[in-house]
Amino acid sequence: MNPDAATPDPRTTLARPDLAEQALEGRVRAAAYRPVRPMHAIAPVTDIHAAADPTSERIDQLIHGEAFDVLDQAGDRLWGRARRDGLVGWISASALRPGAPLPTHRVAAVAARLPLNALIADAADVPAADLAPIGAFETDPVAVAERLLGVPHSLGARASTATDCSGLIQQALYACGLAGPRHADQQAELGQAVDRAEARRGDLVVWLAPPGHHSWTGHSGFMLNADRVLHATGHHGAVVIESFAEADARYRADGFHAPVFRRLQA
pLDDT confidence of 211, banded at 50, 70, 90? Predict the structure, then answer.
């Protein structure tokens, strides 16, 4: 979380010194303001990068059907904000189509042709068994995450085909109709704080990152029970279940802060 609450978070604020979205006029300083142009993803998963150069760092992904509000363009690259999780970045224009149609369904199956939580406006081409109507949610985020065991770990990914740690948490929360911020530091503000001794299944555990020049802000996972954590980890290269004590020792040895525990549901 940004330490200065009055300062807009640059990760989610669609503004540069030369240009900002119209809705920010009077709130942030820019040379010009323009309204956004809504578009939506047609590819199963599309990378969002930190810069217009497609070889720059991947900071997020857009999943099929999700809206992307476009403010600027450089060739085949569009600059804007992913509407569902709020991240600002650059994306390929060829992966998007104009408009943001309201979805009627979401993908509820892990092994479907489209990723988990993809948004569907026309369900005719997707097997009904893979779908759930919008508004019909699961009740246990950990049960959703358990279905993703073995999915490869990949920094910047947030899909059921590959994911990083916060992407796994985000997608499990989305499947249950809960808020799913993209970064570990944002996830560390969800719910209510609990002590380590009280940690139980379903609680979030977050090791906040040490200071440094990196875009990631920590490591997050779900407590499977009092002694085990379910998380997507680069150390194991996948979504795994691991002894909490082993994971805690490793992250602290790497300079991460002591873990915080957050209870999402009473």
Answer: confident
Segment 11-19 shows an average pLDDT of 97
CB-CB contact of 155 with 166 (8 Å): no
CA distance 220 to 117: 20
Residues 6+ apart with CB under 8 A from 122: 104
Cα-Cα end-to-end distance for the chain: 24
Q: Are 144 and 107 in contact (CB under 8 A)?
A: no
> What are the φ/ψ torsions at residue 166 (nearest 5 degrees)?
-75, -25
Structure tokens at 113: 């042709």
pTM comes to 0.94
Encode 55-85: b = buried (16+ Cβ within 10 Å), e = exposed. eeebbbbbbbbbbbbbbbeeeebbbbbbbbb
More confident residue, 19 or 123: 19
Q: What is the distance between the alpha carbons of residues 28 and 36, in angstroms, rounded to a whole number?
A: 16
Burial status of residue 37 (CB atoms within 10 A of its CB: 0-12, 13-18, 19 or more): middle
pLDDT confidence of residue 221: 98
Q: What percent of the chain has pLDDT over 70?
A: 97
| Partners of 228 in beta bridges | 243
- What DSSP element (H or E) covers 143? helix 141-146
